[in-house]
TrEMBL record:
<feature type="domain" description="Rhodanese">
    <location>
        <begin position="53"/>
        <end position="149"/>
    </location>
</feature>
<protein>
    <submittedName>
        <fullName>Rhodanese-like domain protein</fullName>
    </submittedName>
</protein>
<dbReference type="InterPro" id="IPR036873">
    <property type="entry name" value="Rhodanese-like_dom_sf"/>
</dbReference>
<keyword id="KW-0472">Membrane</keyword>
<keyword id="KW-1133">Transmembrane helix</keyword>
<keyword id="KW-0812">Transmembrane</keyword>
<dbReference type="InterPro" id="IPR001763">
    <property type="entry name" value="Rhodanese-like_dom"/>
</dbReference>
<dbReference type="Pfam" id="PF00581">
    <property type="entry name" value="Rhodanese"/>
</dbReference>
<feature type="transmembrane region" description="Helical">
    <location>
        <begin position="15"/>
        <end position="41"/>
    </location>
</feature>
């Protein structure tokens, strides 16, 4: 009981300090919970390579066409986020018909629609495994080469 009275007295004397501490405490707890709940679907470059090689994962690159052409993961498919959002891509493409294959989303900076909302949308469409490349294309570029598509048909170059 004495400790509670002392705590109340301290709070009354140092209201600003206690308020700031509470705000920081809730920010830390919030970030921890968000990281725990949502962090499990962000995967490393090594895990992406494993999923591509062993599980035939489909890599969706949601960056702009110009960014995609300046360098991308080999065999990745450049799609607009709006096409995913409105189902245009999924109604006309064979590569997404198998909903058991993992989908890996490659991004740089998600503009507008958040990556979490995109993942939730794909899960609602029935895709069981949807992952984000942790760190986006920049983390891939640090660890693995990007491929450039030239104007010549069938010509690909590596960018290291």
């Amino acid at each position: 009981m004495m400790l509670l009275r002392e705590l109340v007295a301290f709070t009354e004397r140092h209201l600003f300090l206690v308020s700031v501490w509470c705000v920081f405490f809730f920010i830390v707890v919030y970030n921890f919970i968000i990281g725990y709940v949502f962090g499990y679907f962000e995967i490393s470059c090594d895990k992406v390579v494993f999923l591509i090689n062993k599980r035939n994962a489909v890599v969706l690159d949601i960056r702009s066409s110009n960014e995609y052409l300046s360098g991308h993961i080999i065999n990745s498919i450049n799609v607009k986020i709006e096409d995913i959002k409105y189902g245009v891509v999924f109604s006309m493409s064979d590569w997404v018909k198998n909903k058991r294959s993992p989908l890996i989303i490659v991004h740089d900076v998600c503009r507008g629609w958040s990556l979490f909302a995109l993942r939730r949308h794909l899960k609602k469409l029935g895709y069981m495994e949807v992952y984000l490349l942790k760190g986006g294309i920049l983390s891939w570029e640090e660890n693995f080469p990007l491929f450039l598509k030239t104007n010549k048909i069938g010509a690909n170059q590596k960018r290291e």
